[in-house]
Amino acid sequence: MNNLELLRIKKDIESNVGQRVRLKSNRGRRKIIEREGILEKTYPNIFVVRIDENTDSERRVSYSYTDVLTETVEVTVFDKNGDIKIECVS
Questions:
Q1: What percent of the chain has pLDDT over 90?
Q2: Cβ atoms within 10 A of the Cβ of 51, count?
Q3: Total structural domains in the chain?
Q4: Residues contacting residue 37 through CB under 8 Å, at least 6 positions apart
């Protein structure tokens, strides 16, 4: 893995904390899951997204920056107008 690319992905994600994101994750065997939520927090090896669902309970999911690098998950960040701002895919 390229450490510079991993650092770039981490900085891109850190700079968008609090923004609305769309996650498209590949769960294997042709299972692709799409979710939308708010990029809530970043940590040294993972980032956390609060998922928007119509239930009473809050749900959070976490992914590693390596997941983005290996294209296991695709993160698309939206600006306040709903337009795509950045796509964190190598």
A1: 43
A2: 15
A3: 1
A4: 20, 21, 23, 49, 50, 51, 52, 61
Residue 68 carries which side chain, given as an amino acid letter?
A: V
**pLDDT > 70 fraction of the chain, expressed in percent and rounded:** 87
The band of 90, judged by pLDDT with boundaries at 50, 70 and 90, is very low
3-state SS class at 47? strand
Q: What are phi and psi of 25, to 5 degrees?
A: -115, 140
Give me the pLDDT at residue 4, please. Answer: 86
Contact 63, 10 (CB under 8 A): no
Higher pLDDT, 90 or 56: 56
* Six token digits for residue 12: 């891109």
Count Cβ atoms within 10 A of the Cβ of residue 7 and give its class: 0-12 exposed, 13-18 middle, 19 or more buried.
Answer: exposed
Provide the residue range defining the domain that includes 21: 3-87
CATH of the domain at 56: 2.30.30.100
